[in-house]
Structures are given as structure tokens and as C-alpha cells.
Amino acid sequence: MKRASSFKLSGIAIALAAAFGPAWAVEPIAPQNIDPAAPASLHTDAGVASVGIGYTPDDGRRFGQYNGINEDGFYGLIDLNWVRRNDETGTWTRFFGRNVGLEDRQLRFEQQRQGNWGYSIDYSRVPRFEPLIANTAVVGIGSANLAIPTTLTTGGPIELKTKREILGLGFEKYFAGNWDVQVSFRNEEKDGTRIFARGTTGAGPAPSFGSFEFAPEPINASTRQLEAKVNYNGGALLLTGGYYGTMYDNKFDGGLNFTGGLGALSTFTPIGLPPDNQSHQFYVSGNYGFSPTTRGTFKLAYGRITQDAQFILPPAAGIPGNLDGRIDTKLAQFGITARPMPKLSLVGDFRIEDRDDKTPVRDYFVTTTSTTSNGENEPRSIKTTAAKAEANYALPEGFRIIGGLGYEEKKRNISAVRVVSARETTEETSWRVELRRPMSETVTGSVSFTHSDRDGSPFLTTTTSTGLVGSNLIAPIFLADRTRDKVRVTVNWQPTNPFSVQLVADRARDDYSGRDGSSLGPRTGEASFLSLDAAYTFSERWQANAWYSRSDTSLDHSACEGATGSPAACPGTAADPIWAASLRNLSNSFGLGTRGKLTGQIEIGVDFSYSDIKDENHLDTIAGGPVTSLPDISTKLTRLNLFARYALQKNSGVRLDLIFDRFETDDWTWPTWVYADGTRLTESPTQKVSFLGVSYYYKF
Amino acid sequence: MRWGYPALEFKVGRVGAALLAFCCALLLPAGALAQSADEIREGKVCANCHAGAVAIWGGKHGTKTDSRTPMGIVGCATCHGDPTAHLKSPSNPMPNRFSKMAAAETSSTCMSCHQGRSRMHWPGSTHDRNDVSCVSCHKVHAVHDRMRDKLTQADACVACHKEMRPLLNRPSRHPIREGLVACSDCHNPHGSVGPSMVIRDSVNDTCYSCHMEKRGPFVRTHQPVQENCAICHNPHGTTAANLLRHRQPFLCQQCHEPTSHRGNIASLTGTSTSANTLARGCLNCHTNIHGTNNPADLSNERTFRR
Fold first, then answer.
1. How far apart are CA A266 and CA A260, in angstroms?
2. What is the signed CA dihedral for A27, A28, A33, A36, rounded to 10 degrees?
3. Rounded distance, CA A458 to CA A476, Å?
4. Inter-chain contact B258–A471, Cβ cutoff 8 Å?
5. pLDDT in tens, A283-332
6. How many CB pairs under 8 A join A and B?
7. Would you call A257 an interface residue with chain B, using a CB distance cutoff of 8 Å?
8. Which chain A residues are closer than 8 Å to B207 by Cβ?
């Protein structure tokens, strides 16, 4: 007999994940955490603490990119989760600590009288260790003053890293009359350095690739976010009104200053670093039930971004010392859902966002010759209008037919001087149809097809500061006329109670139209995806799953070398060919996982995943030539994760984790590169890491 | 009904709760009659058979002093409906059997208490329209909902969004698998006014919540940067560095005209402006590609080199 219950499309998917956890990505440290659900259980005063030690004999820059386990050695494994509920008052108190002994530690304390008040404080770190090691003689890394060697100089290895330290505060309070307030604050301190550089045309000392110098950027800054909301729940009418403000404060707002280096780059100092900026937004959103079957939503918002940081260099005479940057954004959204008939559901939505860049236009430098800039800054205003409608009708046998329409218009301001083809307006219309079976005894799924067309106002020609027509051969990918088709199939099959299979397949194609008379620019984009998941429950004690996915995306576009003239034309010669690129990313991934209880005391789990990713960069000659393709790039990721948990007593035990991780790549981006100052960035093409963790847990 | 909020019928306050419990007690079979009305309201009668569901008492839904919770209203009946017939005979199903209910009906039950706030735009949202209900993601009876844990949340999301599974493990990625960034840091699965249910009103505003340094406005701005970060970046993962959709110069050549050096063939061996493929590609020179606030002129400063 078939199992009694029906299921939904997403229901199976969720069940798979619930049974097997993160099979898609086996995180090395995560299993070290005791099941967070365990401590609370049915008790209202319970906790679990886990203390252990991890060891790896390997250096693994990729493995430890975000947790700091990137060098051989020992690591502390500490987790804590304590929850208490006072049943007399309904007051919750919780303390949570994850990876306390590691670089990516997270701590949180919260207290809440449920339905009355609550507050929380949390601290977390988000580190990022740059996988590439910088072998450099540049001095002053981490500061805003860099000393660049004037000749090729061999330097020692330097580890670049960044770190975000985040402090969050939250508060909420409920009031009589169905009102409540929520306040949240988040302060983030960023420090560290990231890869950055300066460069210009011209040769550099051999074997460097030209006048390029390594210039790590200090990112030390503070960001703050404050949001305060007032909510009203009147049953039929729901309202939220609030304020959201943010602030960015760069610790190095004077720019990046240089000494030394190549003569060709002597004027490239200082280089601008991100300026301080702020944003403020007031909004009100709501939801109203017109009837039991009709409901409407809306949001109105007004926001302002400002930027008035002092310029790092004095602008032209008569120009103020800061940008006086200001962008005002107005947003209005209205939506409605209705069920006019039992079998018919309708959805409609309209949205308009007007981003008005009110930054004053000033002439920051005087141009005396025809050039691609007239010295003025270029505010960017964008107005987006979007609407969609959808109808969903119930058919016999549990099927539903869905049809939808969509429309989006974007209007932009255009600068007087342009080096890239511009278009004031783009419009995209789309329609979709879907046949869906959301509920069934054994098979659910859907088939959908979506089609969209994008076009817009005539392209405006590129223009120099003296009015000369420039090159107009490319329709930028985000502005070009485009036809998009996508078909998607999902199938969920549960032939027997313990066995289920899920299939997802889709295929999409974009066709781009170029500028009149030109075949250059983006031409065709394609994407296909196939995923197959299976899960089997052997018994209450044992489950297993397996999955496979194949992703294939590609883009064809063409360009030419040395276009000249007014208007520009491509030579198409041996020296300056017209050429085409076919870019493809193909990945095949699969995973296996199982969980089981060997005895009442021993639980084990195994997860294995493998990904083979290939990036193809094929180049061909259209006219002239020859053109040489770039080598493919292969990246292989392998992860095996095993854990075993042995219960010493009912409330304590030992956990063992064993992880094998392998990262392999033949990426050619950095291995041969040499900066003019002698800096090289290196990474081991094969990184193998073994990690062993042993921890003791105690539930209290 | 889609927006009928049937469970509202049970949200009738303490007097109503007592009345319902009393009525249920009158209709109980002989064995159950031995239970008090309080025991029915607290779900203890239900737990005799549904042992797996009792974890709900250890979570927020089980806080009795909060009059809004199921256990603060009429117990299991708050969500599952009047148990009278079921208590007479287990073969009579409960009125609200979520495994048998359409997604809209399931969500309506939850929304009878949880509507508004961050769920303000649930009606008509992508998940709502695609038969994803609250229980598709949330475990109502669990003490600890994995959707509220950054480490486990993505598991549930990729269970449906399969195309994300390979991307989240790409060499260039956000630290999602480490549990430092969660899907809900960028998306509101309960609906928003932004595209793709992003938490803020636009893609850029969402990205700026962590990357404010890219916001500007700058004295020299780059149009696609101001328009949509996703034109150049795929935030879910890429093999190209910095979450870029394509390597350079290909990415830049999808918009830029082929005059001067901009149409140069991608090469691993060139120097100067031909060195457009290695290292940071075009950014070897155009280093401040998101915009710069440096007003000085230096051979056409709109090119983001300073």
C-alpha cells in the first residue's frame, strides 16, 4: 500500500535536506558543533557545552579561507548553547557560542519575555584569509603610505587578510493595542588589506608585464546600521513604519599615498580610497485584507544617500572641496492577491523606484583637446517601473495552470560625453506559462516556459568632449536588445515510502542584438542545469542520499582590435583582427551521504562531495588573425567528512571528526605574473588538508 | 480560503479557549474523559499518541504565558482545528492535516498569527505563488528551527534551489557554508518589494548593507555599478575571482567599445595594455572600477585609474 500522505514539491526537497544535513557543502567545523536542537529538548533549562581540540598537519589556504584553519597546528574547538525558559513568566534567556576557539567565532546573548519585550547582543567575526600569498618587497602594507621598490625586488611572503568584527544589538517591545517596536543596531569594524594595484601604459622591467605595481589597499573602516520600526497588527490592516540609516566611515580617507616605484607611475599618487558616505530612509509598508479572499500590500519609501568627504586632492579653482553628493530615492509599490473563484487566484504588482542623483555637476578639470572626458562629474539617475500579473487556475487531477505577464522599464540620464554606447530607456516584457502539480500521492512537479524581450530607445552614439562621434560597435550587455527563453522541469517522485527522487532540469537561451551594422558585442548566452537527488531511509536508524548536478553556462561575444576613425571601424587585419570569444563554465558535481546509529551509544555519518569545474575560453578569428585560444582552467574540489559520536553517558559523550579536503586548480591568472616592483602572488595549485577533531560534550 | 485565516476562528481569547476546551472534554471518549480540560488544552492528550510532536512545548510555540502561542490559546487545536471527532475515533482525521493541505491553506494558518512585520509582503511573493508554504521550510514542532540558524539555513534553501548548490562551493564565494553568511542576509524568503526577494528595495541597496564603500556617489562613477551590482557579479559563487561573472578582459568587452586597447585579444603573454588577462586584468590599471572620488585630472581621470 502506498503511504497515506501526499506531499508537495518543496516538501520532499526539505525532507532530503533535513535527513542528511549539508550534503551540498560539508563544512569542516560545523559538525563539531553539537546539535543545537539537543540542549533545549523538552527541558526549559538546558544547555550543551563542547570542548575539544583539532589538528591539521597541512597548510590549506582555501580550506581555511574563512575560518582560519589554514596552517598546520592545533586549534581549539569550543561551542556552547544554553537556553532557559522561566515558565512562570515566559522569559527566555539564551547564550550561544559557536567556534569560540577559532577565527570565525560567533557569540550571542539574548533575553526575551515572549510577547512583551526582548533584547539581544551578539558579536561575530568574519575573517577572510587571502588564498594568494604575496611575495613582495612593498613596504607599508596595511597603511595608507606605501613604499614601492624602484626596481624588481624579491620580497618575503606576506599573508593578506581582512577581518570584520560585528557587534549587533536588538530590542523589541510589544504594547497594548497590537503595537510593537523593533530596534536593531549593527556596528562593523573592518580592518586588513586586500589585493590592489596601480598601473599605466608602457613597459616595465623584465620579466614584469608592464608598468604595474602591487599596492595593497587598507580597508580599515567602520560601518553602522540602525533600523527602528513601529509595527501595527490590526488583523485586516497591518502596518510598519520605520527608519533605516547607514554610515560608512573610512579610516583612510586621505587616499593611498606612494613613494618610489616607476617613473611612469610617479603621478599616480594619491589614489582615491572609498569616501565616507551615509544613507537615510523612511518607509511605511502595509498589508490590508479587503475581504477573506482579497488582500493588498504596499510600500512607500523615501531615501537619501549623501557623500561629502573632503577630496584627497584640491580640485580646479572655484570648485568646492567635496562632491556634495546626494541621491534621493523614492519608492512606491502596490500589490494585490485575490481569489475571485475557488479555482482561480490572481496576483498583481506594480512598483516604481526613482533614483534621482542630485549631485551638482561641476567641471573638475579643463579639457583643452578632444578627449573622452569633459571634466564634469557624471551623476547617475535611474527610474525603474515594473509591473507583473499572474493567474493560477486549478485543473482536474490536482494540476494547476499558471500564466503570467511582466514588464520593466528603466530610464537613465545620459552624460554628454560618452565612451560606452548609452540608451536612455530599456523596456522588457515577459510572459510565462506553467503547468504544475503541487500535490499528489506519488509524483509532483512542474513544467514552465518563460519568454522575455528587451529593447529600448535608440542608442546614443559615443561622443568626445569636442563632439566627435566615437566608436559605436557594441551594445552593452545590460542595455542590448535581448530575447530570452527558459524552460524548466521539476519532478518529485516517491515510489515507495522510504525512497524518493527529485529531478530539476532547466535550459535558457539569450539572443542579443548588436548595434546597427555591427556584429560585435554579446551574441548568445546559454545555460542548462540538471540536478538529480535521491534519498533512501533504510530504517529509523539509517538513511542515505546521493545527488548529482551538472551546470553548463556559456556566452559568445566578439570584439576587434584597433578600431579607429569617426565613426570607428574595425581593421580586420592580421595585426588587428576581428575575433570571437566563446566562454563556457561547465561543472559536474556529485555527493553521497549517510547517517546512522550503530548502537544506542554510537552514531556515525559520512559525507562526500566532488566538483569538477572547467572554464573554457575559446577564441576564434572572424577576420584577420591569427587568434590563439586561452587554455582551459580546471578546478576540482573534493571533500570527505566523517564523524562519529559516542555517548559516554546519557548527557555526555565524545565526538570525532575527520575531514579530507582537496583543492586543485591549473588557473593561469597569477602563476606567471610579475609586478614591476618584483611582487609575485602565488598559490599552491594542489592543496590537500586533513583535519582531525576530538571533542567532549556535556549536556546540562 | 486563501486569505480566510481559518485559525483565526480559534484565536478567540481566554474565554473562548476555555469554552472550546470544555466542549472538547464533553465529547471525549471514555479514556480521554479522564483527562482534564487543561490537559487537553496543553496537548497532553495528543501526546499520548503523537509523541514526536511534543517537542513543540520546548520552543516558542509552547510558551503558555504568551497568550498568542498555540499553547496559550487552545493547544494543538489552535493550528490543527477542533479535535472532537478525532478524539472520538483516531480514524477521524483532524480538520487541519497539513500534509494534506494546499500550500496556501497551510500558510494561512500560520499567517493568522505571524502576518505582518517581515512577512508583510508574503501575499503574492514568489514563494507564495509557487506553493511554498511555511512548513516547507520551517519545522514547527522543533525546539530549534534550522531556518533560524545560519549554519543550517542554506541546506533548506538549496533543497529547492538546486542551481545554487554547485555555486555556493565555487572558489570565489561568500562564506555561506561556514555559517557566516546566510541566504536570509540578502533575501527575505517571506517576500519583499525588491527583485528576487532581496531584503532591501533593490539589489544594490542590499549589497550596500555590507559593502557600503561601493555606494558613493563618486566624482567618477561607473554606470553599471550604479545600476546593478549583478551586471558584473554573481553573488552566489564563481570561479573567476571577486564573484565576477567572467574573467577580464571578456567581462569589460561586453560593454566597452574596441577602440584603443579595449578590443585587445585576451592574452597570457602580452605586456602593457596587452596584459589584459592575467592578474587583475583590466583592473591592473583601472583599479578603482567601482568609482573614485579623486577629482584630479591625469590623462582622463574618468578611467578609474586613481
1. 8
2. 10
3. 13
4. yes
5. 999 999 999 999 999 999 999 999 999 999 988 889 999 999 999 999 99
6. 504
7. no
8. none
